[in-house]
Amino acid sequence: MFRISVNELRSGQVAARSTHNPRDPGAVLLERGRKLNERIIRPLARIGLQSLWIEQGGTEQFDQLVTEAQLSRQRDILKGLNAVFRAAGENKITDKMLAVFRNVTLALLAELRESPRVYFPFEELRADPDYSLLHSFNVCRLSLMLALEMGEAANEGTEKSGELSDVDYAFIGLGAIFHDIGRAAVAPEVLAKEPWDLPNRERKEVEAHAVRGFRLLRDRMGAIVANIALCHHAFLDGYGYPHQAEMEESGSHLPGGKNVHPYSRLVSLANAYEELVSREGYIAIEALEELNCARKQQFPAAALQALNRIVPPFPPGEWVTLSSGHGGVASTFDPAHPFLPRVLLLTDARNQFLAKEERLELCLGECGRSRIVRIRGRSIEHLLPEQTDGRWEDMR
Ligand SMILES: [Fe+2]
Fold first, then answer.
1. Residue 299 has pLDDT above 50, yes or no
2. What is the DSSP string of 4-59?
3. Which of 201, 207, 313, 326 is deepest in the core (most CB within 10 A)?
4. Distance from residue 209's CA to the centre of ligand 1 (Å)
5. 85 CA → ligand 1 middle, Å
């Protein structure tokens, strides 16, 4: 199977996964195995669906990118998280409810350790009911991936040195999964508005979620977890919130007289990436470009470099179009050459599917000037560096 933008679907293609309606997550929109026609394809973009997984002989290598077992485990975690957020909104949270998530975090860590570089399409669960829950789960997963990738560097600036212990990972995982718990007390109609549409009073109410989360977590989960909730919108260049004075006022005193814990910086980066992709509709390469260029000063360089090593700009399994006009599926991700994946060619320059014996897997780095110019139905040429054998760090 491969994943393609709904705008590039063709009649006759077959859905490889059941797809839920983004506007009504309980409802299955398309059954797995459903053959597409124009009547089915046309409304998909209108209701907010971005992409579909399509069955295709010869692309079985991508079938296991996300397993049903993984998705079902994740749905269970979201259910538990839903109960915590609801209790937080009603002021009925108990220590026990939160403590359960220590094991959830460690189980997730074990899963990630087993397959450390696994590509994870973050939108895979977007059809689940509450955006805040999915966002929290994704930020937790990405924060743990970042910490694993950074290794000892994740502990720089903390009281400890050397590799992270499971206790440290649990701090990061818990801080990440509960970083937005303060939002549970904000009215749903306020949360539903775009940030730029909020009148001043409501903007302050939303921003107060950081301090509210800190207060809720401080006595129950300790200073580091609470600091992550407090500082996930506070950036290294001084932008964001809460401001220095508000942080001091909140009583967040960390060892060494610091206001922002290094783990909070790491979760802040995971949060920024996830927000761009899930809330603002960026695709991976657009979000990476924004964070590496315009917002480079907002995050520690080591964390940003780790992000670049774990998030592929051309995710394996995604349909891509080459400058030659050929189409195919990105099949590998090499962090040393992120813009040069291997591509399994499936269509010719006239957009016709190739016969089985004509298909080949190209390594873009070895085949002259061909480069990827479209992914997920968007033109991305302007985002590529001049020399596509470079890395994000070499750009600008
Ligand atoms: Fe937040």
1. yes
2. EEGGG--TT-BBSS-EEETTEEEEEEE-TTPBP-HHHHHHHHHTT--EEEE--TT-
3. 313
4. 7
5. 14
